[in-house]
């Protein structure tokens, strides 16, 4: 770490991350029902007042784990805040400052490590929830499996307040001193320096060159897609072989293919994965217009590759020394 903000970070510990907030909605039955349905929680005390009374809860209650949900600002609130932060740095709260300082230290990645909630009592429909968040701890720089970083813990405290709770944010801290606390949440994150990126891909496996196939790879190095032709019967063949499969002649020469053709068949390889390649990996059997077939890589989206597609070859060089044909969709352009 070239920059060390330890002192500035230490000064933030104990600071609230902004003025206390008030929940947009009172604790209410529809949100409780939606939450319970989404979580698959069928406990009747969340739906049925009689069940709540029977359980000694006085009626319907909110699932305890909804604690933080009541105080969330929603998508529009988040977007509004992010856009204003971009325009005005003086709107930066202590949490923003902490994150900025950590970014400046090079600790630019973030992962949530744990969350602990404590519930003082159940919440009931009609209650108004206010929340205050404080930076509780910022650790020294630690070595972790993800890289060097600092753990930070924020403490959110949740209160039940009534309609007299001030709308003026600057008066809310004083009001919370007299309010009933209903729960807390400690949220810990690790801000860390991402490790150097993964090692470069290993090179592709090299073809074994033989006296039969060397012409093919040498041709590619010169920018030509060469196909073997029997000089006795003119039958084309690929992959290269010493003798003609039709007339058994050992005499041959080559033609230069135009590289145009259509997809005769294909596979999209998912496994097993060789580190030199990207997956899913489409591989096609292309019927060249000259009349033989060739297996090659294709640069067509695996979702959209199809038999019968017109394709055209280009020669791509991999790892600086391996030239291979790659087929693109032939758009006729
Ligand atoms: Zn032949």
The oligomeric state is: single chain
The proportion of residues in beta strands is 25-35%
CATH homologous superfamily grouping of the largest domain: Hotdog Thioesterase
**DSSP strand count:** 14
Measured between the Cα atoms of the first and last residue, the distance is: 52 Å
Q: Which secondary structure elements does this structure contain, and how are they paired or packed?
A:
Blueprint: H1 6-12, E1 21-22, H2 29-39, H3 49-54, H4 74-87, H5 94-104, E2 109-119, E3 128-138, E4 142-144, E5 147-161, H6 172-176, E6 180-192, H7 214-221, E7 226-230, E8 236-237, E9 252-256, E10 260-269, E11 281-288, E12 293-298, E13 310-318, E14 322-329
Parallel strand pairs: 12-14
Antiparallel strand pairs: 1-3, 2-6, 3-5, 4-5, 5-6, 7-8, 7-9, 10-11, 10-13, 11-12, 13-14
The protein binds zinc ion.
Using brief descriptors, characterize the structure shown.
7 helices; Thiol Ester Dehydrase, Chain A; alpha+beta; 333 residues; binds zinc ion
Q: What do these coordinates show?
A:
The chain is an alpha+beta fold and 333 residues long. The chain has helices at 6-12, 29-39, 49-54, 74-87, 94-104, 172-176, 214-221, and strands spanning 21-22, 109-119, 128-138, 142-144, 147-161, 180-192, 226-230, 236-237, 252-256, 260-269, 281-288, 293-298, 310-318, 322-329. The model has no long low-confidence stretch (mean pLDDT 92). The protein has 7 helices and 14 strands. Strands 1, 2, 3, 4, 5 and 6 form a 6-stranded antiparallel β-sheet that branches. Strands 10-11-12-14-13 form a 5-stranded mixed β-barrel. Strands 8-7-9 form a 3-stranded antiparallel β-sheet, covered by helices on one side. The protein folds into 2 domains: 6-21 and 85-192, Thiol Ester Dehydrase, Chain A; 214-329, OB fold (Dihydrolipoamide Acetyltransferase, E2P) (Beta Barrel), CATH 2.40.50. The chain starts with 5 loop residues before the first helix and ends with a strand. Strand 7 and strand 8 form a beta hairpin. Zinc ion (ZN) is lined by residues 230, 232-233, 235, 244, 246-247, 249.
């Amino acid at each position: 770490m070239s920059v060390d903000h330890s002192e500035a970070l230490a000064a933030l510990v104990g600071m609230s991350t902004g003025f206390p907030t008030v929940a947009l909605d009172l604790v209410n039955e529809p949100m409780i029902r939606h939450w319970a349905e989404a979580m698959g929680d069928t406990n009747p005390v969340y739906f049925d007042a009689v069940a709540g009374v029977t359980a000694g809860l006085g009626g319907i209650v909110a699932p305890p784990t909804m604690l933080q949900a009541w105080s969330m600002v929603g998508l529009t609130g988040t977007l509004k805040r992010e856009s204003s932060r971009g325009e005005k740095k003086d709107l930066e709260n202590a949490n923003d400052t902490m994150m900025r300082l950590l970014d400046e230290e090079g600790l630019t990645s973030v992962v949530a490590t744990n969350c602990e909630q404590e519930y003082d009592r159940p919440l009931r429909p009609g209650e108004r929830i206010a929340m205050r968040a404080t930076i509780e701890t910022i650790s020294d720089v630690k070595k972790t499996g993800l890289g060097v970083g600092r753990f930070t813990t924020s403490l959110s405290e949740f209160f039940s307040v009534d309609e007299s709770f001030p709308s003026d944010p600057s008066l809310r801290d004083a009001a919370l001193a007299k309010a009933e606390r209903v729960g807390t949440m400690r949220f810990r994150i690790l801000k860390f320096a991402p490790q150097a990126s993964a090692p470069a891909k290993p090179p592709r496996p090299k073809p074994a060159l033989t006296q039969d196939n060397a012409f093919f790879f040498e041709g590619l190095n010169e920018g030509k897609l060469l196909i073997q032709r029997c000089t006795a019967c003119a039958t084309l063949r690929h992959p290269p072989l010493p003798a003609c499969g039709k007339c058994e002649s050992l005499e041959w020469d080559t033609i230069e293919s135009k590289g145009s053709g259509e997809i005769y068949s294909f596979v999209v390889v998912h496994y097993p994965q060789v580190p030199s390649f990207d997956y899913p990996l489409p591989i096609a059997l292309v019927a060249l217009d000259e009349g033989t077939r060739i297996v090659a890589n294709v640069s067509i989206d695996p979702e959209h590759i199809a038999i019968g597609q017109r394709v055209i070859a280009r020669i791509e060089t991999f790892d600086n020394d391996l030239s291979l044909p790659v087929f693109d969709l032939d758009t006729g352009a």
